[in-house]
């Protein structure tokens, strides 16, 4: 009786999760998959096949755009790690109590406004007649206005800025769990800053680093607004391609295929990253 | 770092060492010297400043004033990774991300010792602590005592001048702790390295140490051998903190040389000695009598001419094998006393409510000025 | 509790009322910014009792939205006339318009006839005209007075200070400027491909001149206003609204011809409030209402006599940009055949990717 009851309780508890998974993730993906394998042969005529997927591999433009997007996302992830690690270390190890909370909140502040507003903020800063250019002219570093917007560096800044929190939070969590006595012991045994970082802190923070990197990489790869608004004339982004297939070309079939390719290829990159860092998904995400 | 004092008398010496935190002095004017090869303990209650002192020696904290010398060289301004001392941390701080060999070899790697030599020296030191061939194991695969030995090996492989130990036995269970006390002492004499050991557990300090410093409120109360501290404490704090004691608050009735007669608050008359301060009639004093200094007898005349002689009623028997005690109430004054039961079998049948004679020598009745 | 009860009764009463009145409907309107200004909506609601929900969108999104719901979710949409027949053939998202319910006398006859012709499939008409306008050049005449045609955007004198969209109007405009006639080739795929490849080469060559490809109306206005861009391909209304702030900037009808578009009324297939939709069409085509919309949107309407009540300043700007010869030279978009956009999309992608 009690066992039956507890099983019922378990099912009830699991229902929201299952509904969520089924209705919001599995069903739409099945729908998208069905769309992606219908190849258009004429007006309102479709046959089932993998033609849409073949387009991706036969048209170098799409393939190159994906490679570019992946490469830039990896670079953005790396930069976010390099910038975020000292921030996280400072928050986790060198502050406590109120200061810690305040600093943590400061990392959150950019998320109080929408991504669109954040990106427009960067546009105001970086544009030719913007604050950055004007300031550099004012202090005499530049003699004339310079355009900082509309290039890959601007995309990078936008991506790093947007992703920062998602790197800092897991890093702070893992670094917080590193007992200070490990660092002191290493120092006591003759270690210096670099060797302690390499042998003690990074190995300990590895799960946090990897989970932060996965999140940031996925967010960058799937970002749409930042690359479109901050990027320049050549700055194709894979999500932009998907958007234009769906919205401006009315080509949902190719768009869906691209969506699945993005899912598959990004999962492959994450898997490769896990293998390279010798971490398992359960270690990093399951913490 | 000059080598002028290379033949210095002490491996470790502190001269008027002070440490101030905002508005509060954690370590006050501490001066001491530790000769080479000594097992030196710093004993004190928590919050007495012993950890701060140890961290200053290790270099994690800068002294506010005073000097600190290791083998005659001043360590002021020398960072921890450049000091010839190693530390065994309270929770050992063995690196979980490395296997045992990498842990023990960590310090040698930092010094740039060639790989083959590291492997050789690590194996040697592991053998010396009684753990040969465990190098490839993970930390989590070791027992508590083995971890302890690895932590010591990790320090000793660097051949430090002084090994600092921060209550490393605190986390162990009682049996293992008893065992490790002996083992630590053995290891120390084997390596013949100066150990500085801090603890709040007097039995650890008494069993292992050659020299013990008793610390209270940031100051050293007394430095001496275990025996000196036990039998001849210099202060009321040491008398109360080291070993067990019956404590009385009393007023001096008469004093002659270092012999004093006192009356406790309950009206019991005591004859004792005042080893440190000259006392005068009317002075308030704290009086300490160790439970094992009190003798028991069924008849008063068995004691001979003992200075303090009273009768008591057994209130409670705390049986603990070799370490059994009785709590009794002194008849005249009604004061409570704790007395060790001699293990001769004579008092095996003692019962609650029994009346018994108690006696102790004046020399074992140590008086200190109250509030000192 | 009382509150809930009373509001429940109120709701019930409202339901009964609306059922008995049978006309008060909610009109879900899918339109462009400015085409349904609040004052017009308020007047309409007061006069007819219908309520209006406005969703602002653009041509591509309208099709995407209606496609996703299979022609549902909205009662009236306003796509451009050239984008109706192709989308209808491909996705079947509209229903024919019942012309008997529309007051044809309120429309400029030539525009009504042209739109009917362009949106006809078989004998069914799918769109009637509402707002028309052009795209051409918006130029800062003080800094780039020499820009008169689309191809002038590629001139070295304006290098790095030029912007246009990476969309099909750009392809069409450049083709006309290069002396080609893309509209004539609409139904000849080979000829159209040939034109596209020439335009592609030109756009790639011109790429270094471009500061950025703009995406939204506000973005290009900002770029022009700040002086970061001095010549751009854009809508006439954008040029005129900038002209109101800065007399140097204005809309210029290119010598090759401005590209004329007409936004229409079309009925989504599964729209429910047809009554309200026809009422809205007839309401906004009244001359005085049409003038209010022109004031809000900046563009003129197909309403007969609708330009009479329009602000004089806007009229003056319009006349300055469009002498009679320029009006005669407007290239009106014909219906886009299905599949043509796929070809154009590939060209635009290649231009985007080119270094």
Comma- or semicolon-separated keywords:
heterotrimer; A: 287 residues; mainly alpha; MetI-like fold; 2 domains; two-stranded antiparallel ribbon; 13 helices; 3% strand; C: 355 residues; alpha/beta; D-Maltodextrin-Binding Protein, domain 2; eight-stranded mixed sheet; three-stranded parallel sheet; 15 helices; 15 strands; globular
Protein described:
The complex is a heterotrimer of chains A (287), B (372) and C (355). With 287 residues, chain A is mostly helical. Helix content of chain A is 77%, strand content 3%. A two-stranded antiparallel ribbon of chain A has the order 1-2. Chain B folds into 2 domains: 10-237, Rossmann fold; 244-369, RNA polymerase II/Efflux pump adaptor protein, barrel-sandwich hybrid domain (OB fold (Dihydrolipoamide Acetyltransferase, E2P), Beta Barrel). Chain B contains 8 helices and 20 strands. In chain B, strand 17 (325-330) and strand 18 form a beta hairpin. With 355 residues, chain C is an alpha/beta fold. Chain C folds into 2 domains: 2-132 and 261-328, Periplasmic binding protein-like II (D-Maltodextrin-Binding Protein, domain 2), CATH 3.40.190.10; 135-258 and 330-353, Periplasmic binding protein-like II (D-Maltodextrin-Binding Protein, domain 2, 3-Layer(aba) Sandwich), CATH 3.40.190. The termini of chain C are far apart. Mean pLDDT of chain C is 89; it is low at 1-22. Chains in contact: A-B, A-C. The A-C interface holds A 43-44, 61, 64-65, 127-129, 147, 149-150, 228-229, 232-234, 236, 241, 244, 246-252 and C 60-61, 63-64, 67, 87, 89-92, 167, 207, 210-213, 215, 226-228, 338-339, 341-342, 345, 349-350, 352-355.
């Amino acid at each position: 009786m009690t066992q039956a009851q507890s099983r019922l309780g378990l099912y009830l508890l699991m229902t929201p999760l299952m509904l969520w998974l089924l209705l919001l993730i599995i069903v739409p993906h099945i729908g998208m998959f069905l769309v992606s394998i219908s190849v258009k042969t004429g007006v309102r005529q479709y046959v089932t096949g993998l033609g849409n997927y073949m387009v991706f591999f036969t048209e170098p433009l799409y393939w190159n755009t994906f490679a570019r997007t992946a490469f830039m996302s990896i670079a953005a992830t790396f930069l976010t790690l390099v910038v975020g690690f000292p921030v996280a270390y400072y928050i986790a190890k060198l502050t406590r109590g109120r200061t810690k909370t305040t600093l943590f909140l400061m990392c959150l502040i950019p998320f109080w406004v929408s991504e669109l507003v954040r990106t427009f903020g960067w546009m105001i800063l970086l544009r030719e007649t913007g604050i950055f250019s004007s300031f550099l002219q004012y202090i005499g570093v530049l003699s004339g206005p310079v355009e900082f917007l509309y290039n890959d560096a601007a995309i990078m800044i936008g991506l790093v800025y947007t992703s920062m929190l998602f790197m800092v939070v897991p890093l702070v969590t893992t670094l917080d769990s590193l007992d200070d006595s490990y660092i002191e012991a290493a120092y006591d045994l003759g270690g210096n800053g670099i060797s302690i970082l390499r042998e003690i802190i990074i190995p300990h923070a590895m799960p946090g680093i990897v989970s932060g990197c996965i999140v940031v990489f996925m967010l960058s790869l799937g970002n749409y607004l930042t690359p479109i608004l901050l990027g320049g004339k050549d700055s194709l982004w894979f999500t932009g391609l998907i958007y234009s297939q769906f919205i401006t070309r009315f080509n949902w079939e190719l768009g869906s295929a691209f969506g699945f390719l993005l899912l598959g290829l990004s999962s492959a990159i994450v898997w490769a990253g896990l293998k390279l860092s010798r971490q398992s998904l359960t270690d990093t995400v399951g913490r | 770092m000059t080598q002028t004092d290379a033949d210095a008398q002490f491996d470790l010496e502190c001269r008027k060492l002070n440490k101030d935190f905002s508005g509060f002095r954690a370590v006050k004017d501490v001066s001491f010297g530790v000769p080479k090869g000594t097992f030196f303990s710093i004993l004190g209650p928590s919050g007495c400043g012993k950890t701060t002192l140890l961290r200053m020696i290790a270099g994690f904290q800068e002294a506010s004033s005073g000097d600190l010398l290791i083998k005659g060289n001043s360590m002021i301004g020398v960072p921890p990774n450049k000091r010839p001392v190693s530390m065994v941390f309270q929770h050992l701080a063995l690196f979980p991300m490395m296997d045992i060999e990498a842990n023990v070899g960590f310090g040698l790697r930092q010094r740039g010792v060639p790989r083959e030599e590291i492997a050789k020296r690590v194996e040697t030191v592991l053998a010396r602590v009684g753990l040969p061939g465990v190098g490839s194991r993970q930390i989590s695969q070791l027992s508590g005592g083995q971890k302890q030995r690895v932590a010591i090996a990790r320090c000793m492989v660097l051949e430090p001048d002084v090994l600092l130990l921060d209550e490393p036995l605190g986390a162990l269970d009682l049996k293992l702790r008893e065992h490790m006390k002996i083992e630590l002492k053995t290891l120390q004499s084997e390596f013949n390295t100066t150990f500085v050991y801090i603890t709040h557990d007097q039995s650890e300090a008494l069993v292992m140490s050659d020299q013990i410093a008793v610390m209270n409120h940031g100051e050293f109360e007394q430095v001496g051998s275990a025996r000196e501290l036990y039998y001849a404490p210099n202060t009321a704090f040491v008398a109360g903190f080291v070993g067990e004691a019956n404590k009385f608050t009393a007023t001096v009735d008469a004093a002659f040389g270092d012999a004093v007669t006192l009356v406790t608050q309950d009206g019991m008359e005591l004859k004792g000695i005042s080893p440190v301060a000259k006392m005068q009639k009317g002075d308030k004093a704290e009086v300490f009598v160790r439970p094992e200094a009190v003798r028991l007898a069924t008849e008063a005349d068995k004691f001979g001419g003992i200075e303090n002689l009273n009768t008591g009623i057994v209130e409670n028997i705390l049986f603990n094998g070799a370490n059994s005690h009785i709590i009794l109430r002194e008849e005249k004054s009604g004061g409570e006393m704790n007395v060790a039961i001699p293990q001769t079998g004579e008092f095996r049948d003692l019962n609650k409510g029994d009346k018994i004679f108690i006696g102790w020598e004046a020399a074992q009745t140590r008086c200190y000025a109250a509030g000192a | 509790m009382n509150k809930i009860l009373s509001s429940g009764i109120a709701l019930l009463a409202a339901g009964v009322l609306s059922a008995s009145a049978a006309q008060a409907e909610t009109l879900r309107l899918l339109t462009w910014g400015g085409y349904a200004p609040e004052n017009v909506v308020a007047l309409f609601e007061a006069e007819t009792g219908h309520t209006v929900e406005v969703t602002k969108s653009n041509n591509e999104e309208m099709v995407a939205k209606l496609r996703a719901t299979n022609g549902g979710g909205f009662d009236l949409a306003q796509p451009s006339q050239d984008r109706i027949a192709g989308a209808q053939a491909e996705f079947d998202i509209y229903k024919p318009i019942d012309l008997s319910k529309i007051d044809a006398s309120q429309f400029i006859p030539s525009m009504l006839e042209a739109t009917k012709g362009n949106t006809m499939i078989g004998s069914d008409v799918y769109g009637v005209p509402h707002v028309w306008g052009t795209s051409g050049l918006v130029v800062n005449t003080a800094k780039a007075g020499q820009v008169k045609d689309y191809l002038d955007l590629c001139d070295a004198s304006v290098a790095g200070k030029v912007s246009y969209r990476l969309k099909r109007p750009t392809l069409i405009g450049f083709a006309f400027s290069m002396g080609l006639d893309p509209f004539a080739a609409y139904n000849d795929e080979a000829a159209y491909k040939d034109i596209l490849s020439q335009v592609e080469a030109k756009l790639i060559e011109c790429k270094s001149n471009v500061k950025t490809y703009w995406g939204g109306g506000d973005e290009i206005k900002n770029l022009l206003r700040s002086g970061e861009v001095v010549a751009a391909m854009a809508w006439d209304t954008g040029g005129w609204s900038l002209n109101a702030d800065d007399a140097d900037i204005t809309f210029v009808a290119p010598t090759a011809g401005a590209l004329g578009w007409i936004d229409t009324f079309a009925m989504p297939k599964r729209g429910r409030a047809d009554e309200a939709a026809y009422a809205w069409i007839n309401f906004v085509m009244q001359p005085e209402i049409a003038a209010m919309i022109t004031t809000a949107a900046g563009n003129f309407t197909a309403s007969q006599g609708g330009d009479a009540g329009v602000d004089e300043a806007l009229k003056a700007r319009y006349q300055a940009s469009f002498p009679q010869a320029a009006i005669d030279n407007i290239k009106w978009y014909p219906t886009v055949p299905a599949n043509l956009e796929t070809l154009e999309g590939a060209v635009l992608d290649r231009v985007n990717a080119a270094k």
